[in-house]
Amino acid sequence: METPDSLAARVPDGALVALPPDNSLPSVELAKALVRRGARALRVVGVPVSGFATDILIGAGCVAELETSAVSLGEAGFAPRFTAALKAGTITLRDATCPAIHTRLQASEKGVPFMPLRGIIGSDILAHRPDWKVIANPFAAGEDPIVLLPALQPDFALFHAVMADEAGNVWVGRRRECATIAHASRAALVTVERVVPGNFLEDERLASGAINATYIEAVAVAERGARPAALLDEYGFDAAYVADYARMARSEAGFREWLDREVLARTAKVAAE
Question: Which residues pair with 52 in a beta bridge?
C-alpha cells in the first residue's frame, strides 16, 4: 500500500508540481513527505495562491521556482520562509494572477496550446511575463487587444481528498478546481482520509464530486493529511498550529526547530522501527 513517503519518492528533483491553496484540499502531509525525502529544485505552481505547504517546502530548501499570485498564512500573516527566501534571492518568483493561473491550466486541460484572457492589459505584470503575448483580437471589428497565455502542464498535481474508492476514483466534493489541476497535469498524487468500497462514478450523489481514476497515478491514506487546513466538512482549520508555525518560522533557527519536531522526527522514528 502507498504511503505519503512513497508518493513523495515518485516526484523527482526539478519536477513542476501544482499545489492548491489552504482553502482547497492541500496535502500538507505530502509536502512534509517531500521535505523528508530531501526534494530539491522543485518548481511549484500555487493554484492560484500558495500557503502553508508551500512555505514549509521553501523553508526546507526544496523549491527553486514559484509561480503564484500570492503567498500567505491568512490570519497568521505573511509566509515567513517565502519572504526570507525572496529577500535572499534563493528562489525565483514568477508573478501571476489568479485568473491567469486557472486559464493556463484550463488550456492544458482542454489540450490547446494557449487561451486568451482579459483584465491584464494595463497592469504591471505584463512587463515581467514575456511569455504572455498581447495580440489584436482577430474577430473584433475595431481595436481590441487581448492577452494570450501559454498552456501550463504540471508534472504532478498534489492534493488531499476526503476519500478514494476501491476503483481508484477520488472524491473532492465541491472543490472542483482540484479536478482541473488533475486533468491538466501529467499525473496526480493524492492523499486521502480513507479508502471506501464501491465506485463513486456509479453513485449519482457522489459522481459529480469525483475525479476519474484515469487522472490519478497513486493514492495514499493520510489521516488529517490536510492539517492545519480544513477539509470540507471533515475537520476545521487549526489556527493555533499555524500561529505556532508563523511564530517559530520567523527565524531560520526557529523554523529548523519546528521542522525537526513536526516533520523530520518521523524519519527518525521510522528508521528506529
Answer: none
Mean pLDDT value of segment 65-71: 97
> What does CATH list as the number for 4-96+153-272?
3.40.1080.10
All three cell numbers of 144, joined, read 481590441
Annotated domain spans of the chain: 4-96+153-272, 114-150
| Type of residue at 79 | A
Q: Which DSSP category does 22 fall into? A: T
Phi, psi of 121 (to 5 degrees): -60, 130
**DSSP 8-state secondary structure symbol assigned to residue 23:** T
Burial 213-244 (b: 16+ CB within 10 A, else e): bebbbebbbbeebbbbbbbbeeeebbeebbee
Report the pLDDT value the prediction gives residue 266, as an integer from 0 to 100: 64
Residue 272 has pLDDT above 50, yes or no: no
Reported as a single tens digit per residue, the pLDDT across 164-203 is 999 999 999 999 999 999 999 999 999 999 999 999 999 9
Cβ within 8 Å of residue 267, ≥6 positions away: 36
Cβ-based neighbour number of residue 9 at 10 Å: 14
**Cell 485568473 appears where?**
99
SS3 string, 142-172, reads CCCEEEEEECCCCCEEEEEEEEEECCCCEEC
Residue 1, pLDDT score = 78
Q: Check whether 270 has a pLDDT greater than 70.
A: no
